[in-house]
Amino acid sequence: MVPLLGLAIAALAGPPKPAAPAAKNTQTLTSGWRFRQVGKETWTPATVPGCVHTDLLAAGQIPDPLYRDNELQLQWIGKVDWEYETTFTITPETLQQANVELVFQGLDTYADVTLNEVAVLHSDNMFREWRASVKPQLRVGPNRLHVRFRSPLKEVAGLPAKAGFSLYAGNDEQSMTVVGEKGPPLSPYTRKAPYQYGWDWGPRLVTSGIWQPVKLEAWTEARLTNLHLVQRTLTPERAELTTEVEYEAGAATTATLQLETRGPDGQLAHPTINQPVSLTPGRHVLMVPLQLEKPQRWFPAGYGAQPLYTVTAQLVLNGQALDKSTRRIGLRTLEVRRQADQYGKSFEFVVNGLPIFAKGANWIPADIFPNRVTPGKYRQLLQAAKAANMNMVRVWGGGIYENDVFYDLCDELGLLVWQDFMFACTFYPGDNAFFSNVRQEATYQVRRLRHHPSLAIWVGNNENEVAWQDWNMPAIIGAAHQKQVWGDYLRLFNDLLPSVLREQDPSRLYWPSSPSANYEDLASRQRNGDMHYWAVWAGTDPLSAYEQQVPRFMSEYGFQSFPELKSVQQYALPTDFDIASPVMRQHQRSQAGNPRLLEYLRRDFREPKDFPAFLYVSQVLQAHAIKLAAEHLRRNRPRVMGSLYWQLNDCWGGASWSSIDYYGRWKALQYYARRFYAPVLVSPHEEGDTVRIYVVSDRTAPVPARLQVRLLDFNGKVLYKQAQALQIDPLTSRSYLDIPRAKLLQGHDPKQVVLSCEVQEADGTMLTANTHYFAPPKDINLPAARVATTWKQLNDSTFQLTLKSKQLVRDVNLSLAQGDGFFEDNYFDLLPGQARRVILRPAAGTTAAELRQRLRVQSLVDAF
């Protein structure tokens, strides 16, 4: 019986007030994890995000997989199943929310997930986010989350036999087969990063693990599921955008959508928009126009600044923010211009109306274990790309869709991103389950990345199309299955991926494959589309063959070298210091790599005197090769509008095509790239009986300058000299001076002279300098020069080193005998009598006296 007094009080109080709306709550689940091999008793602490190999290494249960040939002992890891678990606490407030989802942002790869012993999801794709509604399985207090990873090797072992034919198209089948495995490679059959289970430049270590963060999301009234800014028009006066706010509601109610836009300076760029919204159950998209006055445009590096706007959307109900989402955007126009011309059909990126010559390199994952790549390492590598005057990186289709921090940094640094979908060098199953999986992968990745101004193009795959045309793939498949396999290829790359982009990101060009001419010109990749060129290195064509290639866009070409001795010492012992040793062969993934490198080296150089000298000469050879190709491509602007060499970075150490080694040290090629990708390049070139002095400019305005050409002997005597004033045309390449070779040499021995070309601005500032030799290094008798050095301390962390010599010193390499330091310039030619100043940033606390003692100066003459 209710007391009368209680009834009276209740009546006076009126009806009960509705519960206050609850904001979406996100609980991270990255702590308290442990792991073990399935069937074993002992659990070991684990790190999430991470993988089995790094957890085993942290626990001291395996040796460093990248040291010496340890990977050969660790193949068992990919052949067994593993399990992870953690216990987390749920509060009553979380369970009061109407919806609770478990979110794995990345599972590698075949995983069965249980929550409190109830199965909640199964994954088979490391490139997707995985979600499961788990409120029924949760309870207040401790909850047990368990993930069992099945061996990828076991998972796909029977699929080729089941299909009746092999889908593999690689040009080096052994390089794609896991060490110790007799069966087929994994690549076609699993949505897993191919580089992790073997390529011709990485270890064959089959990983499993929770490689991206894990969280619980709880919400009741509504949540935001996506925020997308669509740029409609952009002029100097105004930017017209549409804000697409996608939400999911649990019940019918009225709320307010708040939109806040802040400019690059952090100040409001537009008054805050408060728009009433009638929420209805289900998923919906709200379209809100946004207009920005006097917009600041985003430019690629070298063409302008990279201003970024921040847009924040919030759903507000009764004064409570239910959920919010933020996007950082850049305002720019971008197209890939493909117009018929006298050479065929152009392929050039045009940003804000400016035709951009793409200068850059291919990007591979920066570690065999992606969780080890910190934001600091991403920044170090991408800043190095910008420091080398690059404006584009190509995310290669055999790696991973990179982490958000990678694209954020590219936005900040002005590095355009050529983005492959993760398909490479093979053909794929055509069943509905595989295609459905890929559709969800592509949709997730496109929606994740489409707001980045740096993102320039989507590309279906790496070299699949050329595999069919040139790698004898139809014969490998067999006549009975050719039509089916090619039909599946077209369904995947001509239908499925383009349909996803039409729905999610119609603003960017989709390109079916790299290289490709979009099926328009199969006879010649020189006239249409992009090109990969590997007859130098992968073939045995001479370096001069680079200059026979004039494609519309060169998206891949490369040459190999070893890292420097300090880096080799991090994965090998002195007893291994021979490229024929088992350990050095293990760190050379290309079967023909060492013989081929020696063959090319002996064509142009003398035999190095010892192992350290070989490492140095291999880097000089690589730098000479790519310089030859890159300058040729730039000289042929506008016919050629892109040069992306293979590759910027490395994932594990050893012989590599990278210009920065795994440990972050710049190779000779990275220093050379800084010069051959300079905004203004002087490039002397022999053409028949004429030496032509080209100047290539990426500047957007004319540059008044002065060109000076000198022919010197190795002791500094001037044998020929000519100077003239220039007006360097913007965005062009042209020869400004032609000199008959006979007039230039005047009978002097071409093996004993160097041509020096310099371009200075009107105030005397050096714009660009280059040297040219008339004979290969092995035919040149360089003098044994003495280099004088002086030091000047500029501040606590920066020193200036000045070098000078009375004789020519070629390919000067500066290093420290102890400790590391970064030389801003290196691997340069020191001309007789000409001072060269180099900035050095050594380890903190290093004194000038220590630097004088530790400095080592090496040059080409010292290597033989």
UniProtKB/TrEMBL annotation:
- Which chain positions lie within coiled-coil regions? none
- The segment(s) forming the Beta-mannosidase Ig-fold domain are 783-862
Keyword Flavoprotein in the entry? The reply is: no
Tell me what reaction this enzyme catalyses: Hydrolysis of terminal, non-reducing beta-D-mannose residues in beta-D-mannosides
Catalytic EC class = hydrolase
Q: Which domain of life is it from?
A: Bacteria
Q: Which residues belong to any copy of the Mannosidase Ig/CBM-like domain?
A: 690-779
Q: Which SUPFAM superfamilies match?
A: (Trans)glycosidases, beta-Galactosidase/glucuronidase domain, Galactose-binding domain-like
Pathway listed for it is: Glycan metabolism; N-glycan degradation
Q: One Pfam family from the UniProt entry?
A: Glyco_hydro_2_N2
Kindly list the places in or outside the cell where this protein is found, as annotated in its UniProt entry. Answer: Secreted
Q: Where is the Beta-mannosidase-like galactose-binding domain?
A: 33-212
Q: Does the keyword Cytoplasm apply?
A: no
EC annotation from Swiss-Prot or TrEMBL = 3.2.1.25
Start and end of every Glycoside hydrolase family 2 immunoglobulin-like beta-sandwich domain?
227-332
Q: Which UniProt keywords apply?
A: Glycoprotein, Glycosidase, Hydrolase, Secreted
Show the GO MF annotations: hydrolase activity
Which family does the record assign?
Belongs to the glycosyl hydrolase 2 family. Beta-mannosidase B subfamily.
PANTHER family per UniProt = BETA-MANNOSIDASE
Q: What quaternary structure, including any partners, is listed in this protein's UniProt entry? A: Homodimer.
- Descriptive protein name: Beta-mannosidase B
